[in-house]
Amino acid sequence: MNRHNWLFFLFTLMLLPWAVAAEEVAVDTGDPETIPNTHCLRCHGMGTLGYRDKLTGNLVTLQISEAKYNTSNHRKLDCVACHQGGFGTYPHPDKAKAEHLYCIDCHQQDEKIQPYHFLKIEDEFKRSVHAQKHPDEFSCFSCHNAHKFLSSRGVLDDEPEVGKHLHREVLEAVTYANNICMRCHDSPVQLLGLDPDSPPNFLRAHDWLPNHELHWRKVRCIDCHLAESDKLLHEILPAEKALNDCRNCHSRNSMLLGKLYLYSTQQSREKYGFVNSVIMNDAYVIGMTRNTFLERISLIMFGFTVVALGAHGLGRWTAFRRRGK
Amino acid sequence: MGPYLALGQCATVFDPHLNRYVIHYTPGADTALLDFKTAILTHNIAGTALAAWYVFFVAGNLLSRNSIHYHIQFKGLIGRLFRQVKYYMSGMFRGEPHPFPAEDENKFNPLQQLTYLSVMAGLIPPLILTGLVLLFPLLLTEWTGIPNAIVWVAITHTTFAFLSSLFIVMHIYIASTGHTVWSNYRSMLNGWHTEPD
């Protein structure tokens, strides 16, 4: 054991009495049904609260960002609304920590959130490549962090003023969504853990795509890795079935209008009142974003020119024949 | 050499225009001249070749006497333009001789001279510059800090591309007004202007 390890060992020994005391004296934090969020955030608000995952070796944070939680879709919920059973004491009992939360438990009954189609989303998720290939490893929480989840649509329709405030800008939504995918797909450790024989190679799989970086900054992975008609965005397709026809996006009827730009387009259409409103929304997509005024002027000028030149040519030919006679 | 240069020039001029329509209008697979991916690739290659061609054109004119054909004599220009337009509008139909026949020191008529100079100095440079910017779309936003700057570059590129399309259509037609319908096209290919005997 070298000098540093000895020092660490001694330091650990010094802390042992406090650790034992903490283990022995479980703190009763009160009636679990009435614990306010501030109480939980006294510990879970700390940036340093976390542990090292034994499987991956990664640090897993247990911090909950109060700011992000308060602007998430779940901000009105108390922590104990989901984390029930035993969280009234500290340290939390292992039984409580082994909780198995399931979004549908809350979301299937609530009439307020019917528009979000959670049951259909669950069906889609079950058909997704993730659930099909790794049914035990994947759940809602593999991708979604309930503590900062904010739907692209913003918040519920009964809070339009808050919804306007919380609505994600397109580029922000892209970064948010792609970070979810990249947490695993950009991590060899995560991928090897799931698929040790043939982990998907993210860069090689996208060799064919021009302007990689531009696409990754401007569109979501799911915009191509979902069926064109999938508006609920949860049936992630296997790589070989992902959309790879450029015209899916780069055309007047771009599917992006029904996916990535679905809500922003609705907003800007209401604001600007014309079909090409995407142009006012920091978005330019070749083949999709067109200025109809310029197109019409171009066609009129082009048509006029062709007709005028044709008439001139006909006149020349007629005059030539007349002179010949 | 001449025919190869001319054909190369044709390829760099026409290809971007054809592909532009494919890229801009993105027709369905059954109506497309080219599929979208191929159109993007060939448009990028041909556009870059056009940029290189333009450098060659500018260098060639700076280093040779060819630039004399672009020196506009402003004195009496309006009158000369009027005579040329009048020839196209009426004189040509009556079989009148060309008011400004091509000469060694002045191969363009006044209207040609003004149009070519406007195109080569005012239309092609912004078309090429905006095209080059569109090849690296992320750089513009990083340099300017304006999120939607690329929109205006794209609109400018499309507008100038459309104007150059108009020029090409008129250019091709006017080329048929030599002493025979095909004589000017032959001149474009072999570099020699012929006059009627």
From TrEMBL, chain A:
The keyword Phosphoprotein does not apply. Residues 64-148 form the Class III cytochrome C domain. The chain crosses the membrane at residues 297-315. InterPro entries: Cyt_c_III_dom, Multihaem_cyt_sf, Multiheme_Cytochr_ET. One of its GO terms (molecular function) is metal ion binding. It comes from the Bacteria. Keywords: Electron transport, Heme, Iron, Membrane, Metal-binding, Signal, Transmembrane, Transmembrane helix, Transport. Residues 1-21 form the signal peptide. This is Nitrate reductase. It comes from endosymbiont of Escarpia spicata.
